[in-house]
Structure prediction request, 256 residues.
Amino acid sequence: MKSDIRRQGIMEFLMDAGQAGVDDLALRFGVSKMTVHRDLDELEESGFLRKVRGGASIQPSSLFESDFRYRQKQATEEKQRLAAAAVAMIEPGQTVIIDDGSTAGGIARHLADLRPLTVISNNLAVIQELAGAGGINLIALGGQYSKKFHGFFGLLAEASLKSLRADVAFLSSSAIHGASAFHQDQEVVQAKRLMMVAATHKYLLVDHGKFGRTALHFLTDLSAFDAVLTGRAPEPGVRAVLDAAGVSLMVIEKGS
Prediction:
């Protein structure tokens, strides 16, 4: 098996398993443990996984955000609820920003009933969903494509955002600690901050599992958003911190 095909196979296995040991991977792909270590080193250097004791993981940490494909499979029902609820914040004729996150990205499939709309996004999944859709004026942000985040970032994307204005922006974040949002990647943080500057109204969509996590880079205080949408009420102590900080929290329960 060629190394690039084997590495793709390792990533596909991790998409389902979340993490794996070197011994298991060596047995699965019929190669030596040394070969597996070289594959994992290469994949880690490319930012697709993180090596842990005895193996590798694609699960997030304070320094590592998961691959877009893995995040799409996490808390799917809750993310769908949040996306459906977020549509109530949009009116026909508005300009809407949707970020690279898998949670905010789920809004795209709900926009047909709100046309006409102008949609600005660096999220390739959103761009593919809306490309050619009638009544949707789609503005795809340029920049350097990130396979890991399935979106566009960097100087070109940032320059575009600085020249645009929108009625509403929907963002996601990988970690909520206290009353602040954090993310592991500084380019992603910069893009999200510029989206917030460009929009009159701002909403954060995060599944309940993001609370109590932290990441390397501070994104913003949660009070900067008109509302934070989540699918399950946080623990009382967490809720008290949010209330004290003036955070508008909307809990979108099942059946609501």
